Amino acid sequence: MIPMIDAADLTAGDKTAVSDLRVAATQTGFAVVRNTALSAERVNEVIDTYRAFFRLPAEEKARIDMARTGANRGWGAPGSEQVDASANPDYKQFFDSGFDLPFDDPRAGLAVYAPSRWPQAPDGFREVIQRYYTDACGVAMGVLRGLAQAIDAPRDYFDGAFDVPMALLRGNYYPERPAWATEKDFGIATHTDYGCLTLLATDGSPGLEVRRRGGGWLPVSAAPGAFIINFGDMMETWSNGVVRATPHRVVGGDHERISVPLFFNPSSDTNVAPIGSGEVLLAGDHLQARFAETYVHLQKK
Ligand SMILES: O=C(O)CCC(=O)C(=O)O
Ligand SMILES: [Fe+2]
Hints:
Pathway: Alkene biosynthesis; ethylene biosynthesis via 2-oxoglutarate. The chain has a single domain (4-300), classed as Jelly Rolls (Sandwich). It contains 7 helices and 12 strands. The chain has helices at 7-11, 15-28, 40-54, 58-62, 125-150, 233-238, 283-294, and strands at 4-6, 30-34, 74-76, 93-97, 168-174, 188-191, 197-202, 208-211, 217-219, 227-231, 248-250, 257-264. The chain has an 8-stranded mixed sheet with strand order 1-2-10-7-12-5-4-3. Strands 6-11-8-9 form a 4-stranded antiparallel sheet, with no helix packed on it.
């Protein structure tokens, strides 16, 4: 069973909400969070906005193809991400945007803070996506405060680490599963997320499957307005394995599907080495290493 958590209860420190989040973080790996500051209307607007972008001709999207850059901002064409080395590159396409650094920030040269690349169409795309980015980061921070409490740390434990978040907002577009797809082809192949917390909105249709600890796959879906959350590799490392990163995938089926993950990651100079280990592992290096493994254009050949 995937826990269902009320965000307002979590903010209030409600015991049940906190203990449900503890179960999600340490056992099931996934939860559904509802009653956040983001309404179903807002999420539908974002999904419709991404859909209008994905419907543009490929030549148009190619003008902001991330493959021509050394970073991961803009359009990711089908086949541009390979999250599992034993599977083929994913057949999904996607659009990634990131945190807007002030222009004089000394971190401006880092790929993890690369400037977003915006399409000329559809109208209003940038405004809708940036507004959602800001508000989704707020919702994610609220979940992290609950997580801190759930793992017996002070509620503000993570706050200082996320003031310049390497947060990446993605729109995923899965077409109908292609007729040519083999058992090595996926919408997105089996993977764990790379960062700390993923806040996932979807169009409500099924497709996501979560690996059960005992084996097998559990379908998880949530209507727009509810969010699927899970934890990534960085949080697993940082928490000394207390919080777990859980593998998941989308095989794809007979319908198109849009999902919108916010990958919520701390500032690049955060030490995410296991707490108490005395080691140093910078969040920026951790994240960049995972990007270099999985984005085809960043893979070392
Ligand atoms: O589309 C989904 O439901 C999951 C997407 C996902 O796992 C990802 O983008 O990391
Ligand atoms: Fe994922």
